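Dear colleague,

Thank you for sharing your sequence with our group. We've completed the structure prediction you requested, and as agreed, I am returning the results in plain text so they can be pasted directly into your records. Please verify that the sequence below matches your submission; if there's any discrepancy, let me know and we will rerun it promptly.
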Amino acid sequence: MSSKTILYVEDNELNRKIVRDLLRRTSYRLIEAPDGEAGIAAACEQHPELILMDIQLPKVSGLDAIRALRGTPETAETPIIALTSFALSGDDQKAKDAGATAYLAKPFSPFDLLTMIRSLAPEQ
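Please find the predicted structure tokens below.
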């Protein structure tokens, strides 16, 4: 029984550490990418079961990365949770329009994130 892989695309090291610590006590395997460009490449190479995508990213924005992943056969159906600290009215709709499966505004409760992760990619 292999663990499910989660890709976290996030440029902020502290935010990555929070998620790393959160998932450490689970069966998930976490891979990380520091920008949208690296996130697209990692998703296409690693085929994660779930992607956590920050919206404000260098090189390629999270929304553009989501659009690119939705246009790629290997990742077209992969659940994507869009995460943003700049939660403005309509941001959730922009994320969903880009192809995000779910949306969570920062700061979020780690418990809420883990619940969302488990609902989209249940542990085995």
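Summary note from our side: The chain has one domain: 5-119.

Kind regards,
the structure core
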